[in-house]
Each structure stands twice: as C-alpha cells, then as structure tokens.
Task: structure prediction
Amino acid sequence: MDLFTHVLLAYLLTFGLVGANPAYLAAGALAGGLPDADALFFPIAGRFPILRHHGITHSLFGVTVVALAGALVAPILAPGAPLVYFLVMEAGGIAHVLGDGFTHFSVPPLLPFSEVKLELDADRAINFLTLAVSVGSFYLLLGVERNHVPFAWYVATVYGLMAFYGAYIGIRLAGRYFITRHRGALAPDAVPIPTGNPFRWLLLSERRDGTTVRTTWARYQLGRGLVAGPFTVEGSLTLGTHSTTPHTAVEALDWSYALARKASRMMEMTYHFGEAFERPGGDWEAVWYSLEFTAFGRSQAVRVRFPAGGGEPLVKTAFYRPVQTTV
Result:
C-alpha cells in the first residue's frame, strides 16, 4: 500500500476514534506513515536483517515502541493526554501493518518473536486508484477546505472518504474470498493475483517439471466468475543455442523463457505469463510479462525477438502492453 493511503487511512481512523482534534489527527496520521521510514535503514539492513523493509517497523512490537515514544514526546509539542497520543499512534501503526498485509507484499506482525507472515493477497502493493484518491483527498482536506468552508463540509468529506475506503476494502475482500472457489479449475494451490481493478483478478498456478516451468492462468471477474481461460504457457529454464527462427508460438515461448529470466530479476520475483506471435517481416517475438508490476495497462516485461533470417535473439526489458490478451 502506498504511503499516501497509509497516512490517509490512519488520519480517518484517528478521526473516528477521537474526532477533529488537530494534534491527535496529526499524531495518528504520522504514525500511519512511520513504519515506511525503515527505508532509511537500507545501508545497514544487510547486516541486520530485522531492519529490512517490512521488517521490525512493520510489527506490533515496532509499532508499540513508536507509540510509546510518541506518548512521551507529543505532549511536549502540542497539548494532549499521553494516553490518547499512545492510543491514536498505536492505532495508526497497526493500520499500516494491516494495510500492507492486505496486499500481496507480506509483513511479519509478530517480529521479533516470530517470522510468521501476514499476506492476504487482496490488493496490489501500489494501486493507482487509491493513490490518486489519497493524494486528491489531502489536497481537498488540507488545501481547499482548510479554513475555507464550514466545518460541517469538512466532516461530510471525512465521512465520505470513510465510506469510499470501507466499500473499496469490502469489494477487495469479497473478490479475494470468492476467487478461491475457482481454484479447482486450475490447481488446488492456485494463487489469486489482484489487478488494479478491484473487480478483476487473475488466478494462477505454476509447476516445475525438471527444467520446464508450466504456468496456467485464468481471468476472474467479481460477480461473473471465470471470464477467460484457463490458458497455459511453458518455458525451458535451460539457456539453449538456437540459430534458426521459431516456427510456432510454443517454440518461441520455450526458447525465450530462459533468456527472459536471465535479463530481468522480475521473472524470479513475481508471477508472470507470456505470449508469442509472428511479426509481418517473419520475425518471431515472445514477451514475458509480470502479473504484479503493472501500471496503466502496461506490465514490466522482457521482449525477446528472433530475427527472420536466424541469428542472435534481441532481448529488451521495458513496460509493455499485452498484444494478445488471450494467450
């Protein structure tokens, strides 16, 4: 979940707990964003893994330490009760942990006592819909409305945002629940992949047979069930030497998979799928797309082009828009 949405949700939660007290709202919102300050530990996180991103700061222990510190320092900076400061900062920090655990990026809420992960796979780590709404909301609340409109308008805006995010979270959870009923169409261990649209999902399973990886996926829409697929693509993990041009999409995908994995760590880090097609000039092209690193209809991908006359394949990494969405 993006930083702006973390801060806004903590702000809304604090408003729900203590009302429109500026000092408490600021403390709660700050606590909602502070866990991501672990990015500052990057230089030493390699030596002390507990300080890695989504490490100790994204745990109940880390959140509580920050809330205790805030309860001591905040009353010095602005009037307020230490206990209330502790409660709103604890709530804001927990909201951050739950927000990240809501996505497909896991967090360890019980560190340092347990490495058990929380990962619901109900949303993308960075969703441009909620990011845009969150940025616009802060501009509205702190720029347009602050000291310019009646207080009742501000309260109505806050409750409107609560309703929006409540509905959004509810839709995401409903999709996450119902998509699991369709796992049998692929495999019992098929995983749900959220897309940027809260009503649309991908269901995916991956199997390795020696040096071959087989990926099967289907498209799901909330309220309609599986609307496309399942489709299957295969690729070899072994780098081959092919001096000719592929003759089929299956061959192009098989020959390109190892090249794509070598060209980008994205292939190792995320679920992905591929498509292949023949260009008008006789070239064959295979593109492997990430199912998790996407934005505005494009995915982080690796394109492998096999020249029509044979020769060395051309490999390029960029953000591409899928050409044949049913492959």
User: Anything to note?
Assistant: Residues 188-320 form one domain. Strands lie at 191-194, 200-209, 212-221, 225-236, 272-278, 284-295, 298-306, 314-320. The chain has two domains: 3-148, 188-320.
